Amino acid sequence: MIILDKVSKTFGKFEVLKNCSTQVERGEVVVVCGPSGSGKSTLIKTINGLEPIDSGRIEVAGTDVWAAETDLTKLRAKTGMVFQNFELFPHLSIIDNLTLAQRKVLGRSKAEAKAKAEALLERVGLADQAPKYPIHLSGGQQQRVAIARALVMDPIAMLFDEPTSALDPEMINEVLDVMVELAEEGMTMVCVTHEMGFARKVANKVVFMDKGEIIEDCSGEDFFTTERSPRAAQFLAKIL
Ligand code: ADP
Ligand code: MG
Fold it and tell me: Of the candidates 50, 54, 40, 41, which has an alpha carbon nearest to the alpha carbon of residue 7?
């Protein structure tokens, strides 16, 4: 479903991604972890066309993401992205947050978009919040809205960039529960997260990054049970 082949990128002289290769199969959940500044956010953004790459190749469902002819707006709709800070449109109600892109990008009718939005809000347990504005919701609720907003586009994969790290501890689980449910339903997911409980539960694969490199790329089971590279072991010791 997603292929990264020798992806490199620099910011000026700084090599943020060094020859990164990995693959995500359909229905797989891949957890990406690693120290702050290791390039995780940059990597995930290159997959849905938010950060251009300097060399290598990225494919999403057969589309070459960085080919000149690729329609990045359509691609972004297909790969729903959820950010650390929710990134809801503050000036739009929850329901309007969920219908805007459906109408503009997918050309759905108002009624169709609204029905889809209501169904997804129901699914994340927020049916009663539709007329409110983001500021009136808790962080956990806002993040569930952000997930629903990505899902209304019928994505073929979901990309999460530390979706729980801006949340108060008591709200983390309400977001992780939605993510676990999605994983169990067979959604293809790439999740940058340090929630190792989540990783143990649903990760088919764990990618460990350090200083722009993919140091480990192994099954979820292996990551937690077999001997780790020194850098990954050091990282795990700090967060577990
Ligand atoms: P992570 O998500 O693992 O913390 P990032 O991908 O956000 O790492 O960043 C990796 C490195 O690239 C960091 O050192 C960061 O300062 C740098 N970086 C990120 N975005 C930019 C940018 N737009 N311009 C310059 N440097 C950047
Ligand atoms: Mg990051």
Answer: 54
